[in-house]
Amino acid sequence: MGASRVALVTGVAGQDGVYLARELLSRGWRVVGTTRPGDSAVAAMSVYLSGVEVVSHDLRDASGFEALVGEVRPSRVFNLAGFSSVGASWDHASLVEEVNGLAVERMLTSLVELRDRHGDDVRFFQAGSAEETGAGASSPYAASKTRARAAVTVAREAFGLHAVTATLHNHESPLRPQRFVTRKITRAAASIACGLADSVSLGNLEVSRDWGAAEDYVQAMVAMLELDAPQDLVIATGVSHTLRDLLDVAFEAAGLGDPASYVVQDRALLRPADAPSLVADTEPARRVLGWSPSLSFEQVVGHMVRTDLERLRSGVEESPAYLSPS
Questions:
Q1: Does the pTM of the predicted model rise above 0.90?
Q2: What is the set of active-site residues?
């Protein structure tokens, strides 16, 4: 296998990193993935990463990244790592700016230098977010993602790097950590169904999002870097649902029916600023990539609940069998 078939995936032990790495491996790529030093979740997630060359790397270490790309010589770099919680970003604004914004600027500088030094065709994918728009754009998380997007644009237009940003709307899977509200709900539904809990505390149930499947979205990521000319695109299903809808589907999948009696409203869980609704125009991605989601909202949420039920009943938290409903 030639050096041109090497992909570097930052944040490989996260939800998107796992699905993307497995997709790339299935296509014959050599995959090198980075994880945050000291990340306690890496050991548990290793069950999903067979065949991936995993290295420890801090995004803030610019010289470390330069050395890594110089050694690996990837032709594809997918930046999926970073501070991912919008709500928690308010309490860690400086860290979020450095990890999600400044680190991307430094990565791009290293890749331009690598290309110029060796003539490599280096292509870069940046995971952007729908949170960059609307009322939620005031969050430190959104601001850092906007800074990264600007850096990608400069690298592409001023330095000719094949670099793109995907505006990723919410995408879920059983690998979503429980600190995210979607997984909090599916785990709670499973726990209540198993007699291990009797309620779930939530904030604003009327917030609306476009929720898709992580396994679908990583296929769009790969396809974006296969385009002859780099192009930023929005990746979404085009259909939005409220958090209340998600509750209904999750509790129905758990066999519990109406969730109203199980939900405790907690004002402390409300974000300082939150876009009430994020709706996407999916036509460009469908036309340019020939991509469309294969799993519906109901299938995604149902699969997450069934997986959490299996986890609680079997005691096995992580298994490759959990990755896909098919």
A1: yes
A2: 129, 131, 141
